């Protein structure tokens, strides 16, 4: 039964306009490229594990460190802003 469906589909696509064939082919190709990329990443991690190298995810540490730096900068700005406001109110009262 599947060969009958495949045959009917191939005959349908053979006479379809180019735009219709691209609508079918392009998403399938995009998915295949994504699958190939993820397969590469998984295999690279497996090679690192099997070779005894460190196989941890370094992206998480970078993002956490960057988030911590941004949070510290934001807190420092807020502290400076409050300090300026406090000085400004104190200066007006005197």
Report a brief summary of the structure:
The chain has 94 residues and is an all-alpha fold.
Account of the 3D structure:
With 94 residues, this protein is an all-alpha fold. It has three helices and no strands. The chain folds into two domains: 24-51; 56-94. The mean pLDDT is 80.
What order do the SSEs take from the amino end to the carboxyl end, as H and E?
Answer: HHH
Share in helix: over 70%
Radius of gyration: 29 Å
Q: Can you tell me the residue ranges where pLDDT is under 50 for at least 5 consecutive residues?
A: none
Percent in strands: under 5%
Domain count, please report it: 2
Residue-averaged pLDDT, rounded?
80
Shape: elongated
Gap from first CA to last CA? 93 Å
Instruction: Enumerate how many helices there are, as a single number.
Output: 3
Give the secondary structure arrangement, pairings included.
Layout: H1 2-14, H2 18-51, H3 58-93
Essential attributes:
94 residues; mainly alpha; 2 domains; 3 helices; 88% helix; 0% strand; elongated
